[in-house]
Write a structure and sequence with these properties.
Elements (H helix, E strand, L loop, with lengths): L1 H12 L9 E5 L16 H14 L1 E2 L2 H9 L7 E8 L3 H13 L3 E5 L10 H11 L4 E3 L7 E3 L3 H15 L4 H15 L12 H9 L3 E4 L12 H19 L5 E3 L14 H6 L4 E3 L25 H12 L4
Parallel strand pairs: 1-3, 2-3, 3-4, 4-7, 8-9
Antiparallel strand pairs: 5-6
Helix pairs in contact: 1-11, 2-4, 5-6, 5-7
The protein binds zinc ion (ZN).
The site of zinc ion (ZN) has 5 residues, from strand 3.
């Protein structure tokens, strides 16, 4: 009943053809089970249920096909694509079997320098705070604060405040500070199996999934000059192309907020590098007048399954 209403509203907001509006969903991790530090993160169970809801209202397309069809005003009613950023191993071990169960296509944007045993700075910091067995983490010597880390809630709050600051440092400084925080707070080695192996990237394409570029080191592009931006994008693309033996045509900006994480004019670099399209994390949908080098994406961040489709429907009304 409700789904019939959502389908009708969806058809009205995103009709077939030239007035269609393309929804692109972003995921990062899909956890095996709930993590007390990140109770809102998607789990195998909630991901499975979200895909079931998605399929009742939206038509899932491979991202590259959707972009081609957007360009020719040939999208179906309520088109949607599924994307994952960063290259977490759980995308292959947990999300891929669920995608296959629904026969849904997804595209995985991978930061290549962390494949095969690497780790992003944010996960190093999360590990340090998770493992720290103290009431306070005094990080004032690193230009940070003294954080209470007694409960899971304290730890989540501390992680969020630390990441908000550290994420805008250079790739080198970020890594350095994350390692120093870990040394100070715990003796336990951080995990080396969070990200995919190159073999797992190949596995994605063997199952017909899409792979896209996401730079090598996941820098804030807005902080780099054009040469550095080009180099980061090229290094990531070359690696993926050498592993997969196929052309990489799609790209997602790291962090992805226009004007903050990348500069809108940096999209010209991707255009000149012959990419087909690029994706931000600006909420909204793409339509026939959208810049396909800054396609918006959206995540319905909700624990409540009943809110999932309504959030996607509301996103269809987003003005660009
Ligand atoms: Zn990312």
């Amino acid at each position: 009943m409700l789904n019939a209403i959502y389908r009708r509203v969806g058809k009205h907001l995103a009709p077939q053809g030239e007035r269609s509006r393309l929804s692109v969903l972003i995921y990062h991790r899909v956890l095996k089970e709930e993590d007390p530090l990140f109770p809102n993160e998607v789990t195998a169970d909630s991901f499975d249920k979200q895909l079931a809801e998605l399929g009742k209202v939206f038509n899932i397309l491979p991202l590259e096909e959707a972009i081609m069809r957007l360009k020719c005003n040939d999208l179906p009613t309520c088109p949607a694509c599924i994307t994952f950023d960063d290259g977490y191993a759980d995308n292959v071990s947990i999300a891929l079997p669920i995608l296959k169960k629904y026969n849904f296509h997804a595209t995985f944007f991978i930061a290549t320098s962390y494949l095969d045993g690497g780790r992003m700075f944010n996960d190093t910091i999360i590990h340090a705070i998770r493992m720290a067995n103290k009431t306070y983490a005094d990080l004032t010597q690193f230009g940070l604060q003294k954080y209470k880390i007694e409960t899971f809630e304290d730890k989540t709050h501390a992680i969020n405040s630390i990441l908000k600051y550290v994420k805008y440092l250079s790739v080198f400084e970020r890594e350095n500070i994350a390692n120093k925080i870990t040394e100070k707070l715990t003796d336990i080695e951080p995990p080396k199996d969070l990200m995919m192996s190159s073999e797992q990237v190949k596995e994605l394409t063997r199952f017909g999934m899409g792979v896209g570029g996401h730079t090598a080191h996941h820098p804030i592009l807005a902080k780099l000059n054009s040469n550095e931006v080009r180099q980061e994008i090229e290094e990531g693309r070359e690696y993926l192309e050498s592993v997969l033996g196929e052309k990489i045509k799609l790209f997602a900006y790291p962090n992805g907020k226009p004007g903050v994480d990348y500069l809108p004019e940096q999209s010209d670099i991707l255009r000149k590098m012959n990419f087909l399209a690029a994706f931000s994390t600006q909420w909204g949908v793409a339509h026939r007048n959208s810049d396909i080098f800054q396609v918006p994406r959206f995540t319905p961040y909700t624990k409540k399954l009943a809110h999932f489709t309504p959030m996607l429907i509301r996103n269809l009304t987003h003005k660009q």
